[in-house]
Design brief:
The complex is a heterodimer of chains A (about 400) and B (about 325).
Chain A: H1 3-9, H2 54-79, H3 93-100, E1 108-110, H4 116-121, H5 126-134, H6 143-146, H7 157-172, E2 178-183, H8 190-202, E3 206-212, E4 215-216, E5 219-220, H9 221-224, H10 229-234, E6 240-244, H11 248-263, E7 269-274, H12 293-300, H13 304-314, H14 320-342, H15 362-376
Parallel strand pairs in A: 1-2, 2-3, 3-7, 6-7
Antiparallel strand pairs in A: 4-5
Chain B: E1 2-5, H1 6-20, E2 24-28, H2 44-48, E3 53-55, H3 60-72, E4 76-80, H4 91-98, H5 101-104, E5 114-119, H6 134-138, E6 144-147, H7 151-163, E7 168-173, E8 180-183, E9 199-202, E10 207-211, H8 215-228, E11 233-237, E12 240-242, H9 246-256, E13 259-266, H10 271-283, E14 292-296, H11 307-310, H12 314-325
Parallel strand pairs in B: 2-3, 2-4, 4-5, 5-7, 6-7, 10-11, 10-13, 13-14
Antiparallel strand pairs in B: 1-8, 6-12, 9-11
Helix pairs in contact in B: 1-7, 3-4, 8-12, 9-10
The chains are: A alpha/beta (about 400), B alpha/beta (about 325).
Chain lengths: ~400, ~325
Amino acid sequence: MSTDETGHGGTNAEGPGNSAGIHGSGRYLIQLVTPAGERISHPEFDPWVQDISDEQLCSLYEDMAAVRRIDVEATALQRQGELALWPPLLGQEASQVGAGRALREDDFVFSSYRENGVAYCRGVDLTDIIRVWRGNASSGWDPYTINMATPQIIIGAQTLHATGYAMGIQNDGADSVAVTFFGDGATSEGDVNEAMVFAASFQAPVVFFCQNNHWAISEPVRLQSHIQLADRATGFGIPSLRVDGNDVLAVMAATRVALDRARRGGGPTFIEAVTYRMGPHTTADDPTRYRDANELEDWAAKDPIARVKSLLERKGLLTENLQQHVQDKADAVAREMRAGCTNMPDPEPLDIFKHVYSSPNSWLDRQQDHYSRYLASFGDPAGANSPEGAH
Amino acid sequence: MTQMTFARAINAGLRKSLENDPKVILMGEDIGTLGGVFRVTDGLQKDFGTHRVVDTPLAESAIMGTAVGLAYRGYRPVVEIQFDGFIYPAFDQIVSQVAKLHYRTQGAVKMPITVRVPFGGGIGSPEHHSESPEAYFTHTSGLRVVAVSNPQDAHTVIQQAIASDDPVLYFEPKRRYHDKGEVDEAVDLSTALPMDRARVVAEGTDVTLVAYGPLVKTARDAATAASDEGVSIEVIDLRSLAPVDYATVEASLRKTGRLVITHEAGQSGGLGAEVAASITERCFYHLEAAPVRITGFDIPYPYSKLEMHHLPGLDRILDGVDRALGRPNSLSGLEG
């Protein structure tokens, strides 16, 4: 399947607002469910989700609702002073759940800091999601327990890690895939472009999953690119797909296409999931300073969860039972995360010296020794009662 | 024992690491078919294949970033940066990723990456080919930094670096690549001097002269010349720049009371400053004179016709030794 076939195989042009200010091929978005919840046929991509049963559709809805609830709860925890910061993913649930649920357990994810929905799909411990944002750790989880790297804050750096990991998969003769998530802003970074050079050169089994949420903090996507982001991949010789990122089925189909190509030795694929960051960049941001309320309204009408609910309703699946079940699940998830947050023990002062090196280091050992003596000079070896300045 | 060049000694060390551990993988520009611009990887791709000795596209950040991904996957990448001055595009990946991932993941993810960097001047190259960027990396926690000075160490330490679970920057003095020396290829890594230890390479009693990499040879020559004048210099090859083995330097200083440090890198904020400060803190009352730094100047690396003015040579080092000893020297009569 070539890029062009993919583009022309689409049946639904993107709506107004999606491509404002962006020139380019005018490629159609791959869409399987309209914003109104109508399932439309797509000969090329339907086969990739034909195994999705009613039950699985309900569970996709459940995951999206749970992820949104996590996001809302974490934002509340930040406002209540329990978290230092939180990067909301509100509006991107279909992109993250659609992609996350397409992955195999032995695939490995290299994400940015906003992919908490993907982490949820990987089975992350709910407390681990917020460990970083509470300031208790630099990585909430052991990457090998859920096959997902520690979230990356340096924009785009993780795309190289995914490409290298994929080169390792290739060397090992395995058929798993490295999947990297990044945003529209990251596509301007040298690392992302270099990653595509390496991935193409070595035909590495890596999927570049770009969530074009239209904003890199305050900078609109048109500042990053004058062509559609999916078209950037073409110059590297990497096939790309442009998918409606608020359509969970379309995202899952596109991701499966890319994964399948990688597993069968076909090399990398670039996916542009066109979505929208409904919230601020982080809880420290104020988007009213730079974006139009009308734009938000346009995108609210394309809400990914409302869309999947409409689809379920049309199929007669949106029963009260289901809604209650999903509500209960979301509440339980939120409760568990909140409890994990407020019960999280503070780290010990001397923890800052741990794991800098994997073996003793004479410089650091001396500094640790001196600092523990300093703390001990307050009569409390753990330093718990030392003045604030000692911390 | 085999007589071999510095470059060949590294090559033989890389070969042994490739043989002993299937997870070792070499990456870099021109390291395959060509064998590297200095031929350090000569013949390795032919013997180990293109998947173990990888010619990469020309993107240093990507070489380093993909090495991180390979390390995530359980590999031990050995990255060649073609010249010191080409390492800066990889700086972010080294400083933000390679150095920190073990810490950031509470030890779950190891970064056993070795970064080989031909460094230093003295070969008449155009700009960006003669730099000494080691202090950027010694200032970065999470990295181990070594600089080798002779074929045997080059051979042994490259294998120790690759075997280390921590990331190691391995600086190779490119103007010494063709120096020959006896190398014991049967060296036992477990009993060899650990890579984070300094070595006294010439014993003396009057002055401690600390050097590393390309200037160890110059320092030894200086010691030989000084002995003709009845001055006994103890030369220490630091070998490890992060961490510095202060115990060894301190033991020497307690004997001599006088310290001279020399490196090609510019003076301000360099290794010499670090060694001088740390030794002063540790054994102030054993010092008979202020520590002396004989280093490159705080200038961009100069055009090659004048590089020998920038590089500390034997005479400048001896002038510094005279200063440490309070003997007449070029700065006699100047205060401070």
